């Protein structure tokens, strides 16, 4: 490949694609915030509003009020989320993509695993392309991604990574754009984790099938992601209570379950880390199920953090300063303990 085509390819991969994805994200289906998924979520919310209104279960006079009204959608925190949504495009180009590209050559890919298994056990007969195989392959991709997201999320609730994840949790009101209020470091870790996990899964699956299997997609999105995003996924970051009931919530993560995850009540801490499935929460002991009866919730991580995370700058820089402070305190405590023991 000549220098010009190489430069052109890098420009497309590193700059043009991330920027268009972010700015025109509302028109594409590769993110939960696509217009179609937003409409689907608000359609479900409207159905809920009519249902509850008819039964006298809500005091909201209008649909807008039911969604939280001006005090939620024009709250200082929500306005920050809208601004941060666009800043993320710049962060993606300037930091996330270059860091991931730096690590990329060291991550084993499907081809590496395919060659490894081939050397170990020899080539396998090629299975013909068929729909059930493509559907199974898509299901696996979905499960691997969701499983990695669960553990990455759980890791970011640990002592040393919490300051970065607190960016997401510091929001005292939830709007769909809050889903994008994620520190860039978390995105980097997630992307690397998913690339590594999928590399192994795809390599193993293709080896078992004796060659590549095309993935079954709906409008360019893995079919299961499409289905889950259409199931009111945007209501996760709203004040609309939508529970799937205690039985279904052992498998599927409902918007109400994610709102519990954002609650500042100690009994809700470290519960419901799942994205699409709560199966992982059930398996690893972090499940909290809900009922049709809404629980009174207060979102965020307390007054102090609301003051600390008021600007786009603080969303990006504060986690680094907080983590450095934690390191310094730990070191000075250790030095103090050593001096005392002398
Ligand atoms: Zn969290
Ligand atoms: Zn969230």
Layout of helices and strands:
Elements: H1 3-23, H2 35-54, H3 63-66, H4 69-73, H5 76-103, H6 110-121, H7 131-155, H8 162-169, H9 184-209, E1 217-218, E2 221-222, H10 223-230, H11 255-261, H12 279-283, H13 303-308, H14 312-341
Antiparallel strand pairs: 1-2
Helix pairs in contact: 1-5, 5-9, 6-9, 7-9, 8-14
The major sheet is characterized as:
2 strands, antiparallel
Number of strands: 2
List cofactors, ions and other ligands.
zinc ion
In which range does the helix fraction lie? 55-70%
Write down the Rg.
22 Å
Q: Oligomeric status of the shown chains?
A: single chain
Specify the overall morphology: globular
Proportion of residues in β-strands: under 5%
Structural account:
It is a single chain. With 342 residues, this protein is mainly α. It has a domain at 3-240. Helices cover 60% and strands 1% of the residues. The protein is built from 14 helices and 2 strands. It has helices spanning 3-23, 35-54, 63-66, 69-73, 76-103, 110-121, 131-155, 162-169, 184-209, 223-230, 255-261, 279-283, 303-308, 312-341; strands at residues 217-218, 221-222. The chain has a two-stranded antiparallel ribbon with strand order 1-2. A hairpin with a 2-residue loop joins strand 1 and strand 2 (221-222). Helix 5 (76-103) crosses helix 9 (184-209) and helix 6 runs parallel beside helix 9 (184-209). The longest helix is centred in the C-terminal third of the chain and has 30 residues, at 312-341. 30% of the residues are buried. Bound molecules: zinc ion (2 copies). One zinc ion binds at residues 153, 157, 165, 169, 261.
């Amino acid at each position: 490949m000549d220098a010009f085509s190489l430069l052109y390819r890098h420009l497309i991969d590193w700059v043009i694609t991330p920027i268009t994805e972010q700015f025109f994200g509302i028109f594409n289906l590769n993110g939960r915030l696509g217009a179609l998924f937003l409409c689907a979520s608000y359609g479900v919310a409207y159905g809920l509003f009519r249902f509850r209104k008819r039964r006298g279960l809500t005091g909201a006079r209008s649909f807008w009020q039911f969604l939280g009204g001006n005090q939620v959608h024009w709250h200082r925190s929500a306005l920050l989320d809208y601004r941060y949504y666009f800043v993320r495009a710049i962060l993606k180009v300037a930091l996330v993509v270059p860091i991931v590209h730096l690590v990329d050559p060291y991550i084993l890919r499907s081809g590496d695993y395919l060659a490894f298994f081939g050397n170990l056990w020899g080539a396998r007969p090629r299975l013909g392309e068929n729909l059930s195989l493509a559907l199974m392959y898509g299901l696996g991709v979905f499960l691997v991604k969701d499983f990695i997201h669960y553990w990455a999320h759980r890791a970011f609730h640990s002592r040393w990574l919490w300051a970065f994840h607190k960016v997401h949790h510091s929001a005292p009101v939830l709007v769909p754009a809050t889903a994008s209020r994620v520190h860039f470091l978390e995105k980097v870790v997630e992307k690397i984790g998913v690339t590594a996990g999928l590399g192994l899964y795809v390599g193993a699956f293709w080896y078992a099938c004796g060659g590549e299997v095309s993935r079954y997609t709906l409008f360019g999105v893995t079919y299961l992601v499409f289905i889950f995003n259409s199931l009111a996924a945007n209501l996760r970051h709203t004040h609309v209570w939508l529970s799937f009931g205690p039985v279904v919530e052992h498998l599927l993560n409902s918007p109400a379950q994610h709102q519990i995850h954002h609650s500042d009540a100690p009994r809700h801490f470290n519960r419901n880390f799942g994205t699409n499935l709560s199966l992982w929460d059930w398996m690893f002991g972090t499940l909290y199920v809900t009922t049709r009866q809404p629980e009174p919730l207060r979102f965020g991580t307390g007054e102090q953090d609301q003051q600390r995370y008021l600007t786009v700058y603080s969303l990006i820089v504060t986690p680094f300063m907080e983590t450095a402070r934690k390191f310094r305190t730990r070191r000075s405590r250790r030095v103090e303990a050593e001096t005392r023991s002398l």
